[in-house]
Amino acid sequence: MRLGRTSSRLIAGIAATLATLAPSAAAHASGPTGTRSLAQVLARDGGGFDHRPNDFDILTAAVNAVLKAKPGSPVAVLADGGTALTAFLPTDRAFENLAREISGSHDLPGEKQAFTTVAALGIDTVEGVLLYHVVPGVTITRKAAVKADGAKLTTAAGSAITVQVTGRCFPRVSLRDADTDDRDPRVVKFDINKGNRQIAHGIDAVLRPADLP
């Protein structure tokens, strides 16, 4: 798949999902009561771009860029610890791989260059991609996820992703997105911020809200 040739389709797909953005559902009373937000968790690192592939510096930069350009963006829900949600967080390596595909390069870019490449798609596109990684109104732990094979999760972008679970003794969770031609992201780190209404799971690829050739 060459994203460089089809970025206009990605932008069109984002526009369609943003047009159907649905409000977040209320958290269940019996759910977690902690109110530490995922924005607080992401801000803990505080070191900016580095050479660690499994943290979330590029994601953090993308969230900050969207909120700087659009303070009223629904992405701001990540800073509202009282609102229940589940987020799937692409690692830095996930964004680096996406940037390599966008640029058509054979070389893996560094974190700063990867962010620049992704940001060049436009702030609305970046916003839509971020919202496609957020499932509002529910706190899904690893325990629940491994029992949810086939479940369709409606994202904050209005479209759905599907949970896929393989393996019995050691269940592996992946997420089927709108791009049927590319490998589905796999969960590589569970239960980030567990015990709070906002929980996250790290994934090894960026979810794609449009089917690109």
From TrEMBL:
Highest taxon listed in the record's lineage: Bacteria
Listed Gene3D superfamilies: FAS1 domain (2.30.180.10)
Protein keywords: Signal
Pfam families named among the record's database cross-references: Fasciclin
Entry annotated with the keyword Signal: yes
UniProt xrefs under InterPro entries: FAS1_dom_sf, FAS1_domain
Location of the FAS1 domain: 43-207
Stretch forming the signal peptide: 1-29
Protein known as: FAS1 domain-containing protein
Source species of the chain: Pilimelia terevasa
